């Protein structure tokens, strides 16, 4: 059992090292983090937080863009999350998020 744990730790370390060196992966990770952040913003608005407050927070992370563009980003995230939800009910199950992460 201990050997198995060590082997898994070594494999994880190698995987982590390769991710750190892979600029493409880091770019995908950053886009995924942005996707999660915008999803969070949608939830805040739906929970009753002021759209102006949420948009000012979005501009910190996304950019200093127009309200119309921020709305487009939120609508895009809603669309993507619906797609993930539909895929999760299929054979993709919990891996449905991976499809979007890998395609970002």
Layout of helices and strands:
Elements lengths: L1 H20 L1 H24 L4 H11 L5 H22 L7 H8 L1
Helix pairs in contact: 2-3, 2-4, 2-5, 4-5
Plain-language structure description:
The chain has 104 residues and is an all-alpha fold. It has one domain. The protein is built from 5 helices and no strands. It has helices at residues 2-21, 23-46, 51-61, 67-88, 96-103. The longest helix has 24 residues, at 23-46. It is globular.
Query: What's the number of structural domains?
Result: 1
Write down the Rg.
Answer: 18 Å
Mean pLDDT: 78
| Count of β-strands | 0
Structural category is mainly alpha
Kindly state the percentage of residues in helix. over 70%
Task: List the total number of helices.
Answer: 5
| Shape estimate | globular
Strand coverage percent: under 5%
Largest sheet: none
One letter per element, helices H and strands E, the order comes to HHHHH
Terminus-to-terminus distance: 37 Å
Low-confidence stretches: none
């Amino acid at each position: 059992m201990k050997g198995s744990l060590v082997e898994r730790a070594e494999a994880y370390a190698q995987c982590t090292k390769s991710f750190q060196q892979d600029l493409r992966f880091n770019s995908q990770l950053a886009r995924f983090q942005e996707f999660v952040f915008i999803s969070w913003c949608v939830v805040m608005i739906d929970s009753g937080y002021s759209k102006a407050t949420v948009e000012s927070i979005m501009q910190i992370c996304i950019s200093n863009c127009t309200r119309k563009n921020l709305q487009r980003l939120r609508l895009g995230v809603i669309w993507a999350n619906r797609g993930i939800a539909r895929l999760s009910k299929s054979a993709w199950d919990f891996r449905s998020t991976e499809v979007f992460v890998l395609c970002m």
